[in-house]
Amino acid sequence: MTAQSRPELNRPESGPGSVAGIGVRIKAFVVDSILCILIALASGFRPGHAGYDLTVYGSFLLIELLFVSFAGQTPGMRFAGAAVTRFADAGRASFTWVLVRTLLLATVLPALVVDNSGRAMHDRAAGTIMVRTR
Length: 134
Fold this sequence. Notes:
Blueprint: E1 5-6, E2 11-12, H1 22-42, H2 52-71, H3 75-80, E3 82-86, H4 95-105, H5 109-112, H6 121-126, E4 128-132
Antiparallel strand pairs: 1-2, 3-4
Helix pairs in contact: 1-2, 2-4
């Protein structure tokens, strides 16, 4: 074990495979949020319209579920250089666990509760981890 690794997580300290930090997570969230706003606007909804907020929220959750299930990352995560993998072996998480992760993410709070290893509550519950890809 070197000073460059995180033995408690079996992850490197930096670079590909390391735990994605708050900056990477925020960058991914902002890009995904902009995409969802564009979807709402393209659907004909404008801020203040009854369906705007629901369209943005629903789009965000649908993007999270589908892209993480099938590609391991949302467009925002790809832009930010991050992906979601299984914690145990770094493989792709199953649809069921991505669904659990997304439903917990829908409550917002779990994404804001991070432990000392850098994993958010929804990742811990789903057995996943957000890691850097570069």
